[in-house]
């Protein structure tokens, strides 16, 4: 029988055998290190308020988005304009793609040769992600040559990516305006070549009590929108502890990225999150709103907590940190070095 899944167990087992440290992660069915995980209900925001003719309703909706971005760094949205029919079509095509033989996904250069699995840089089991993904720049989504035999995927992916892009820019505009700037400020520096759609698959894991589906991290861009199935597994750091996010079939999940935290001068929070492996397979799709690589990211108010830097510089620093120490350090590398803000 041809296996569609990558050899995750082999690689995880090799890391486990060669690791001198014991696993710190023991997560299964809402448990972490034997402790029952708290399940949280993210702030739920009805975006129909933004389209209301009542200015008070518009203002209250914008206020809720901004408050959730400051207090949680995560929130859910309903009435977001992306139909359930489109989500179903996208999910069907996504599942069909990941059901292809592993060798085909790994060698056929599908979707701009963007297939990745596991964690190539992992040197310890707790650095390994039990997942596979396609990470597609928006500029390649319309390219027929990227899809190979999966031609039916192109049309629905184009429609889905456009809808997610519009929603991301709408929400970013609200958050920018809340800080006293024009809604278009971030939209003017965001570029399709650096905005991505990521198709994720977390295969069923026989050792789910010992492994991450996606290791703890923060997102590097401005904003991420997540469309997930009902399996669950997403967790975030809240009040210095991990909490599980309860799936909501009607909602999309939005989270703040590092660049928005820097631009907002820490008003909005980029929060560490992770996905836990499960005995059931899980699918999700994430859209990442990012600036062009040479865009200069500065804070929207003074005194600034962070020095100015480009997105290219930030990505290179993240990649260098992961290579050297096995993890992302993030914004702390870019703090202003004075008496108030130091490493």
Q: SSE layout and pairings?
A:
Elements: H1 8-18, E1 27-28, E2 31-32, E3 35-36, E4 38-40, E5 44-46, H2 55-71, E6 74-78, H3 84-98, H4 102-107, H5 110-113, E7 115-117, E8 132-137, H6 151-178, H7 184-187, E9 196-202, E10 212-217, E11 223-228, E12 234-238, E13 241-245, E14 252-256, H8 258-263, E15 273-276, E16 282-289, E17 296-297, E18 309-310, H9 311-325
Parallel strand pairs: 4-13, 5-6
Antiparallel strand pairs: 1-2, 2-3, 6-14, 7-8, 8-9, 9-16, 10-15, 11-14, 11-16, 12-13, 12-15, 17-18
EC number: 1.14.11.13
GO molecular function: gibberellin 2-beta-dioxygenase activity; metal ion binding
Family: Belongs to the iron/ascorbate-dependent oxidoreductase family. GA2OX subfamily.
Short description:
The chain is of the alpha+beta class and 343 residues long. The chain is built from 9 helices and 18 strands.
Name of the CATH homologous superfamily:
B-lactam Antibiotic, Isopenicillin N Synthase, Chain
The CATH class: Mainly Beta
Uncertain runs with pLDDT below 50, 5 residues or more?
24-35, 338-343
Domain count, please report it: 1
Largest sheet: 8 strands, mixed
Number of strands: 18
Task: Kindly name the structural category.
Answer: alpha+beta
Fraction of residues in helix: 25-40%
Mean pLDDT: 91
Determine the CATH topology: Jelly Rolls
Strand order of the largest sheet: 5-6-14-11-16-9-8-7
The best one-word shape is globular
